[in-house]
Design goal:
Blueprint lengths: L11 H16 L9 E6 L3 E6 L4 E5 L6
Antiparallel strand pairs: 1-2, 2-3
């Protein structure tokens, strides 16, 4: 598996949250290559995720993204 910049710096709960939400997010994405996570940063109530296509989303603790 490729390395996601910042993943090692996430707390264990944030790592679990990222894995859970990323899996849900990828299930609904048609162009998975462009929506591959390349960088993550833990915030107070979310994880900021930057993707290969240059876009970013927040992954929230309730399992949603936006």
């Amino acid at each position: 598996m490729y390395e996601i910049k910042g993943f090692k710096n996430l707390s264990n709960p944030a790592k679990r949250l990222f894995g859970y939400v990323y899996q849900k997010h990828q299930a609904g994405v048609e162009d998975k290559e462009d929506w591959t996570a390349i960088k993550v940063k833990e915030r107070k109530n979310c994880i900021e995720v930057t993707f290969r296509n240059g876009k970013w989303l927040n992954y929230y603790t309730n399992g949603t993204w936006g």
